[in-house]
Amino acid sequence: MNDSPVHANGVAKHFGRLRALDDCSFSLPPGSVTGLVGPNGAGKSTLLSLIAGLARPSRGSVSVHGTPVRGRMHPDVSLLTQKRPLYEQFTVREMMRAGAAMNDRWSSSRAFEVLDLLAGVDKDAQVRTLSAGARTQVAIAFALGRLPKVLLLDEPLSDLDPLARDETLRIVMTDVAERGTTVLLSSHLLTDLGDVCDHLLLLDEGRVQVSGDIDDILAAHQVVVGPADVSLETDGVVVDSSHTARQTTALVRGGSVPSGWESTHPDLEGLVMGYLRASRTRRSVRQ
Ligand SMILES: Nc1ncnc2c1ncn2[C@@H]1O[C@H](COP(=O)(O)OP(=O)(O)OP(=O)(O)O)[C@@H](O)[C@H]1O
Predict the structure, then answer these.
(1) What is the tens place of the pLDDT at every residue in 210-240?
(2) Which ipTM did the prediction report?
(3) Does the record carry Plastid as a key word (predicted)?
(4) DSSP code string of the chain
(5) The whole model's pTM is what?
(6) Which of 44, 154, 272 should be mutated for ligand 1, with most atoms under 8 A from CB?
(7) Of 112, 174, 225, 228, which one's alpha carbon is 20 to 30 angstroms from that of 182?
(8) Is residue 208 domain-shared with residue 244, that is, in the same domain?
């Protein structure tokens, strides 16, 4: 049994004939912050809900700290989704009391500590009156009040202004530093991911394309630039390439530097954009 904070072994999820996830295997190291990226419909939300135990895989298995996840919310996991399920009629304070009633493991002091760190949340306001950003902040306090060992965040930052985004990421990172929480963060905002993530999990069409330590992944890729009229001979895998009248630029995984070509390592944004472009090209060729 693998006792990683999160371990997926050959996980598939089918909705009728649609394969939302297919043969996904990976492990998240303890205390890591992993960016979960991929184009729309890649399977990111589906994967997070399987890890949280809100759905069961069609094939394969997921375990959290060595315990199989079996289709019910795992006590060590908090999942914050875009939908932010909160009780509309409750005040923020009542919402936190509900957290104590609903969870075997709950720390009111931690939930209120998080709320106090976040500017602009009135604890006596009804949830239904809060702005989208304030609701997200309440949901984060609720998620951290469960003292999770694994925190799953599904596009949590999209409603927040830049300052609130910064504060929220800081709180998550403090949780990682102080409690060793393992975080899996799905986001399309690559700069946010670059600021906080040390690992990457890149999905496309339900399959894991890249998984591991970001520094290792970047070191294993090169961006090569050469004249447009010279074909690229490489022993690596060309992930993506683009051409102008004068030059060809390509993202290559593995292999040695092709002779006569300039080579640098990509940054995180360049790497992810290369995979996203390649995905779009594959889809448009099929259509
Ligand atoms: N309950 C469901 N029933 C049927 N199809 C579903 C269901 N949930 C997800 N899907 C499909 O599974 C695929 C993966 O969806 P998912 O929401 O996991 O992708 P995503 O990577 O999170 O996308 P986005 O970046 O747009 O949020 C999509 O084709 C989606 O339409």
Answers:
(1) 999 999 999 999 999 998 888 888 889 999 9
(2) 0.97
(3) no
(4) ---SSEEEEEEEEEETTEEEEEEEEEEE-TT-EEEEE-STTSSHHHHHHHHHTSS--SEEEEEETTEEP-SS--TTEEEE-TT----TTSBHHHHHHHHHHH-SS--HHHHHHHHHHSTT--TTSBGGGS-HHHHHHHHHHHHHHT--SEEEEESTTTTS-HHHHHHHHHHHHHHHHHH--EEEEE-S-HHHHHHH-SEEEEEETTEEEEEEEHHHHHHTEEEEEEETTS----SSEEEEEEE-SSEEEEEEESSPPPTTSEEE---HHHHHHHHHHHHHHHHHHH-
(5) 0.92
(6) 44
(7) 112
(8) no
